[in-house]
Amino acid sequence: MTFKRSDGRGIEEMRPIKAEVGVVPNADGSAIFSFGKTVAIAAVYGPRKMHPQHQQDPEKGKLRCNYNMLSFSVDDRIRPGPSRRSTEISKITEWALEPVLLIEKYPNLVIDVHINILQADASTRCAGINAAALALAHAGIPMKNLVSSVSIGKLDKQLVVDVDKEEEDFEEGEGSTDIPITMTPEGDITHIQLDGKISIEELKEVVQLAKKSVKKIYEVQKKALKESVKL
Amino acid sequence: MSDKMERQIVIPGEVIAKGENYLPGSGTEKIGDEIVSTKYGLAELSDRLIKVISLSGIYQPRKGNVVIGKVENITFYGWVISLDAPETSFLPLQEIPRYVNKGDLSEVLDIGDMIVAKILDVTSRGIDLTMKSRGLEKINEGIIVKINSNKVPRIIGKEGSMINLIKKGSGCEITVGQNGLIWIKGKNIEDELLVKRAINFVSEKSFTNGLTEEVKKWFENEGKPINE
């Protein structure tokens, strides 16, 4: 295949990944995660009492995510504060993380996860979910497993792993399709989104590609958690 | 994992041990014949039981813990105490070792007062405290230091070795609450601040081996050598 990506990466090659836990001293758990130029910080507070009280659930705890892009994270300053997009991504992040959390142990309580995007170069929700999973583990919240997230793109007819901003705006041929996927290291999907057009056969390929990439991300997350403590 | 198990850091979803020789303790789950961690922390084996001890995160109240709390509110039947835990706890009138006139609760413990108490029970409805035991009292003097509650076992040390060393080195009375609040009472403020620095030193270096020796050296550097 002679397909060339704009930054010279291989089609299954991700941007350099970095992860670290314990970056916010005041939070109960925190992590920073980056895909190349995309950087996300996640801070976990709680479990703590749910306020407003009418949202308390006596049967299980709740996960409350807050995704926020900082105004300087993109080239043109974005208006700070909640937007349609950030509210949606917050909800998506909750759904991506909830299946692995053993949240029923915390009735009437809430776990707050604040995700801030320091620098955006596409795949911000994936970086955010990866950072949030690390931060939740770091906060000592019981979980069945970690989750890792990656975005698979389709540029014209070519599938690529980990889309950056330039590729997201790709317009030749069939244009670009962006598919963010979140999985456990075993390959159970907790979240999948699709922005664009794709055939069923190609989507199956996408899932296989994501499974491979998620394992690499998981190793980085695992290393970050294990190396944060020196025995 | 082999038969001789070393202390190791585990992450959620990691297989700690295989086979029927081990039992799952707190922070672990048995899936098939594998014992899987459900928490990020330190895996430890005692007898055949494998458990995971948290290294970070918020304080989880447990029955029997001695804790230091702050009076948040007064009701007709007792006091609402804040322990820096997810849920507030309650100290009923009957669990005070003296007679209290109804309506005069604020004369015994007022809002903002700090107390040493013991957790009587943790239920789904809340946490109940008691002050009916030795060493449980209202805090009237000294200073209170807050550390991460996961470091408390290090501050106390094996069978109290670390805390006794610090007590000896400073001549202060120290009460360690399991929720990470530490009450220091000394003859003068300098001694109390010395203890505060010693505690911060221990919690920073909490994973070093032979920490007791290091603390002895630290006291020497501070000009207060400990003579056995």
List keywords for this structure.
heterodimer; A: 231 residues; alpha+beta; Ribosomal Protein S5, domain 2; four-stranded antiparallel β-sheet; B: 228 residues; OB fold (Dihydrolipoamide Acetyltransferase, E2P); 3 domains; five-stranded mixed β-barrel; four-stranded mixed β-sheet; flat
Structure commentary:
The complex is a heterodimer of chains A (231) and B (228). Chain A is built from 4 helices and 9 strands, in the order E-E-E-E-H-E-H-E-E-H-E-E-H. Chain A has helices spanning 84-97, 124-138, 165-168, 200-227; strands at 17-21, 29-35, 38-49, 62-69, 109-119, 148-155, 158-161, 176-183, 189-192. In chain A, the strands form 2 sheets. Chain A has a 5-stranded mixed beta sheet. The radius of gyration of chain A is 18 Å and the shape is globular. Chain A has one domain (17-226): GHMP Kinase, N-terminal domain (Ribosomal Protein S5, domain 2, 2-Layer Sandwich), CATH 3.30.230.70. By secondary structure, chain A is an alpha+beta fold. With 228 residues, chain B is of the alpha+beta class. Chain B folds into 3 domains: 8-54, RNA polymerase II/Efflux pump adaptor protein, barrel-sandwich hybrid domain (OB fold (Dihydrolipoamide Acetyltransferase, E2P)); 66-139, OB fold (Dihydrolipoamide Acetyltransferase, E2P) (Beta Barrel), CATH 2.40.50; 143-221, 2-Layer Sandwich (Ribosomal Protein S8, Chain: A, domain 1). A 5-stranded mixed β-barrel of chain B has the order 8-9-10-12-11. The interface between A and B is medium-sized, with 32 and 25 residues.
Oligomer class = heterodimer
> What's the name of the CATH homologous superfamily of the largest domain in chain B?
K Homology domain, type 1
The portion of residues assigned to helices of chain A is 25-40%
Distinct helical segment count of chain B: 5
- The CATH topology of chain A, please? Ribosomal Protein S5, domain 2
Q: Which residues of chain A form runs of ≥5 with pLDDT under 50?
A: none
Q: Please, how many domains of chain B? A: 3
CATH superfamily of chain A: GHMP Kinase, N-terminal domain
Spatial sequence of strands, sheet with the most strands of chain B: 8-9-10-12-11
**Percentage beta strand of chain B:** 25-35%
